[in-house]
Amino acid sequence: MLPSSLSNPDDLAQLAVDIKAWATEFGFAEARIVDPDLGQHKDQFNNWLDKGYHAGMDYLANHGDMRFYPEQLHPGTRRVISLRMHYLPQSVETVKRLHTKEKAYIARYALGRDYHKLIRKRLTQLAKKIEAKIGDHGYRAFVDSAPILERQIAEQAGMGWIGKNTLLLTPKAGSWFLLGEIFTNLPLPVDGATKTRHCGSCDACLTQCPTDAFVEPWVLDASKCISYLTIEHKGPIPEELRDKMGNRIFGCDDCQLVCPWTKFAKYTEEEDFQPRHNLDSSDLVELFQWNEETFLKNTEGSPIRRTGYENWQRNIAVALGNAKTTDDILDALKKALKHSSPLVQEHIEWALKQHNH
C-alpha cells in the first residue's frame, strides 16, 4: 500500500529527486531508478551456463529463474534503485605495479575493507532515510549477494552500458566502481535506459586479456579468467595458464586498464577503500612468508579472505615463478616447499622449474 504522503505523481517525482541527493550524501557517485525487464536475458544467460563458461561457480546455476524476476527476490518489488560507488584510491598505482614483477598485484577493489560491508551499510542508511521521510515502503538491499543481474539493471537504468569486457562502463567514470541495489515497493518515476553501447570497434579488452578468456565480445570463459583462477577456483591452476598470470595474486584489472574509458575514472575518498597492510606495494616474498595466522589477521574484514590461505600461497607461488630470479625468491620457495600442502607444493615445484631449479 502506498504511503499516504505520496498521494500524487508530483510527490513521487520529488521523492526520486530526494533519493538521488541523499545517495550522494552517503557516498554514492550516482543513483538511478528502473523498472527492470530482465526476462530478455534469460536465454543468453542459460546458453552461457550450458557451455560451462561459469567454470566451478555452480552457484550461478542455482535459484532457477529468480535472477530474471526481481519480485521473486523481494515480493512487491516495483522499482530498483541502482547505485554505484567509486573504489580506486588516487594514490594507488595500477599499470606500473603490473610491470614490477617482484611486487604483488591485487585487484584494486580488494586493497581495503570488504566492499560488501561498506556498501550494504550505506544502502541500508539510504533506505532508512526514505523510510523516515515517507514511512514504511518495503525494501531489500543487495550488494553482489543474491542472484541479481546488476549490470543489466544498471544499463536499463541509464547508468552506462555493458562493455565487451562484460563490465559496466560509463563515460563519467570508466568502470572503477562497484554496484549496489535497493529493491523497493514504491512506484517511483524511472530513468531512461542506455540505448547505445559505446565500445565501437575497440577490442583492446579482448585482445589484451593475458589468458585469452574472452570467447567473443560480451562472452567471458571464467575458466580462463585470472580473477576466477585466483579467487574462486579450487585445486591446481592449469599449467598452461600459470606463466600468463604474471604477478597477479588476487583478481585481475587488465580488461579495465586497457579500456579507453578508464581515462575518465574518478577516484574515491572513502577511507575504507584505502590500502591496508601496504597491499598495494608489497613484495611477493613478504606475502609468501605470511603464516596462516598472519594471513587471517591481515585479511580480517577484507575480500581477500574469500580465497583462503592455501590458495593465497598457491597464487603467490605462481607469481614467484614468473618473477625475475633472485636468491630471496629461491630461498623462499625452497623453504616453503618443506611444510606446504600438496597443492601448494605442486605450484612451488613449478615455480622452481621456471628458475631452472
Automatic annotation (TrEMBL):
TRNA binds at residue 234. [4Fe-4S] cluster 2 binds at residues 209, 225, 252, 255. GO terms for molecular function: 4 iron, 4 sulfur cluster binding; cobalamin binding; epoxyqueuosine reductase activity; metal ion binding. It catalyses: epoxyqueuosine(34) in tRNA + AH2 = queuosine(34) in tRNA + A + H2O. Its cofactor is cob(II)alamin; [4Fe-4S] cluster. Residues 186-219 form the 4Fe-4S ferredoxin-type domain. It comes from the Bacteria. Pathway: tRNA modification; tRNA-queuosine biosynthesis. [4Fe-4S] cluster 1 binds at residues 199, 202, 205, 259. It is found in: Cytoplasm. Monomer. This is Epoxyqueuosine reductase. It comes from Marinomonas posidonica (strain CECT 7376 / NCIMB 14433 / IVIA-Po-181). The gene is queG.
